[in-house]
Amino acid sequence: MGLALGLGAIWKSIIAVLLVGFRSPGAEEALQSLVPQRFSHGQSRDCLYNRTLALYVVEYAAAVYVDDPAALMSWTCSRCQGLTSGFQITELIVDVPHCLQAYVGVAEDLKAIVIAFRGTQETSYQNWAEDLYFRQLDLNYPGIEDAMVHSGFYSAYHNTTLRDSVVRGVLSILARRNDLGIIVTGHSMGGAMATLCALDLAANFGMIDMKVITFGQPRIGNSVFAAGYYALVPNTVRMTHAHDIVPHLPPYYTLLGEKTYHHFATEVWIFKIQVGRLQYEFEQVCDSSGEDPECSRSVTGNSISDHLQYLGVYLKTVDE
Ligand SMILES: *[C@@H]1O[C@H](CO)[C@@H](O)[C@H](O)[C@H]1NC(C)=O
Ligand SMILES: *[C@@H]1O[C@H](CO)[C@@H](O)[C@H](O)[C@H]1NC(C)=O
């Protein structure tokens, strides 16, 4: 039960992670009693969210923030170790005029081509978030009738050097390898580009074996776009963290119907529960609507610091 991804199917699971402190007898039970009933174990299991994979992928999403092309090309940067070590980058795209960066390469341990997009380089996240608030749905997404997106998001991927370089990079790997899947990732604005890229690869290049994991991405289109995206790229995990402001933007207006921005499935919401001096993080796999009212939408989006950290990894440009 619960694995039917059909309309309205609600399937949730929850994974508890002990963040601080140590395991003591009875701690598990004590914690259980604090977790609201709807979060409790024993509900239908979900196969989509693979936490181990997410821990790898968040490292790739962090590495694309590295500013030193040589350290990226040789995969020797400070963030090019640990879970991502051994990655072979084949294409590094630096679009200086638009302040964009992405890479393509092969992760043998994941048996995958990894494509990662960098988030915004705005000096003030606060200003950037305020600007996101007012973005209009002003472009018909080509190929999906009635699907609308914001032209700025669309252009960042389709109307810069990114699209051609990424597609060329992927095709040239696939020309010599047929044993690799594709993983697409990005944080923040990079998450928006990652999803537009995955949709492009699915719709225009027929790529099927694709996983998408984004971190703290904004909404990018209306509900028709969200449904169209989900139909073509179902293996998508859209991670949100506690009060991260960006997934709340541009705003979702229930009463606007087709005219409002609408997230696609499947959100995985990381939320925190404070127990005395200990803080626990839980991950909740949300429903197939894309706008689960019990996930990030159940809290206010007012935090930049929650935006900059996912699964213990800091996602921002740092000096090497
Ligand atoms: C989750 O991902 C890891 C890393 O790619 C993989 O080794 C593992 O088999 C996956 N688990 C499932 C249940 O697919
Ligand atoms: C793409 O870029 C061109 C040239 O900068 C511009 O004229 C066009 O309006 C852009 N398209 C979109 C969808 O933004």
UniProtKB/TrEMBL annotation:
The keyword Signal applies. SUPFAM superfamilies: alpha/beta-Hydrolases (SSF53474). Residues 114-252 form the Fungal lipase-type domain. It holds the Pfam family Lipase_3. One of its GO terms (biological process) is lipid metabolic process. It comes from the Eukaryota. This is Fungal lipase-type domain-containing protein. The lineage of its organism: Eukaryota, Viridiplantae, Streptophyta, Embryophyta, Marchantiophyta.
